[in-house]
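Sample entry (128 residues):
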Amino acid sequence: MTAPSHETQIRVRYQETDGQRRVHHANFLTYFEVGRTEMLRATGATYRAFEEAGLYLVVSEVSCRYHQGADYDDLLTIRTTLEAVGGASITHGYEVIRDGRIIASGRSVVVCVDDAGRVRRLPAWLRG
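Predicted structure, serialized as tokens:
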């Protein structure tokens, strides 16, 4: 069985680049967040609704491997894959693709917490 995945596109904005018009490495983590958010939105849910219920998904772990750079105005595809769902955590995998080639890959773990920062079980609808 193939893990659920979602793709979204981002065009590199000038503000995301360094002095050489290359995407600053930290922005790939932002691209991962866009991928996670859009994957959730594609299911019909939003982070806003999740937060209105008094719950938050906080990043507890993140990694990124850079294979090639990206430049201003490049069109990137962010492929987000749901790798694992635990009682209180979700693990996502990411591939940032330009012109059919993976230029960065990574993984994150988000944990469900309440307003006080205490770890909570994921709602049943999010555990699937």
